[in-house]
Amino acid sequence: MIFNKDTASQTAELLLQINAIKLNSKNPFTWASGWKSPIYCDNRIILSFPAIRNYIRDEFAKNIEKQFGKPDVIAGVATGAIGIGILVAESLGLPFVYVRPEAKKHGRLNQVEGFLQKGQNVVVVEDLISTGNSSLLAVEALRNEGANIKGMAAVFTYGFQVAEDNFAQAKVDLFTLSNYENLLELAVAKEYITETEQELLQQWKKSPSEWNVEV
Predict the structure, then answer these.
(1) What is the arithmetic mean of pLDDT over 16-44?
(2) Which of 63, 158, 173, 213 is deepest in the core (most CB within 10 A)?
(3) Domain containing 153: what range?
(4) Which residues are annotated as a binding site?
């Protein structure tokens, strides 16, 4: 679920402007999973544009506090959401921790890095939601440390049904600054893509693992 429509449209436009999101229905990208995709999203690029990263920071901080109440800790999911998570924590004047994909194999064997006390309220910050699996592994790691997860806030989600099901099953409320639906609406309105390309992009979302550009 998006925080609000205005933020969703503005975020989508900014991501398109800096090529954090690229749309190409004629020459699709190949994801690590092997899926062919007409969209590629790399929100790490946000950090290289001060005005845009400040906008993302401020929208996160304002909407996180409005939606979840002020938590005790902000947690970022490694590696893509570490930088953004730190910015949000700084804006809210809160401690920050980050979660590795898996526990370290040496030293203290940490998966959660930083100071976290049992029972603290945590909002998790993520850069991108696809299936939600890696994001929810981070939630599991935090819960194993005794954290009370208030919810997750992400920059962007593709809005796959499998992600919605995964978050519902894990009992985690997810809110995003923007999503695939609002991205396509904005992309057509600003003539990044045609209405024909929009239809093709909508077909992809329905069955991304089976999508083919020739369909």
Answers:
(1) 89
(2) 158
(3) 5-201
(4) 100, 104, 106, 126-134
Query: DSSP letter string over 111-153?
Result: SEES---TT-EEEEEEEEESSSHHHHHHHHHHHHTT-EEEEEE
What residues form the annotated binding site for 5-phospho-alpha-D-ribose 1-diphosphate? 100, 104, 106, 126-134
Residue 84 sits in a domain of what CATH number?
A: 3.40.50.2020
Q: What is the pTM of this model?
A: 0.93
List, for residues 117-149, the tens digit of each pLDDT value.
Answer: 999 999 999 999 999 999 999 999 999 999 999
Domain tally, the chain: 1
3-state secondary structure of 174: strand
168: tokens are 């519902």
Using the predicted structure, report yes or no on whether residue 85 has a pLDDT greater than 80. yes
Could you tell me which residues are annotated as the binding site for orotate?
130
Domain-embedded: residue 208:
no
Does 195 reside within a domain?
Answer: yes
| Residues 150-164: tens digit of each pLDDT | 999 999 999 999 999
How far is CA 102 from each of CA 56, 87, 105, 107, 132, rounded to the nearest angstrom? 27, 23, 9, 14, 16
Work out the angle at residue 130's Cα, subtended by the Cα atoms of residues 128 and 133, and round it to the nearest 5 degrees. 100
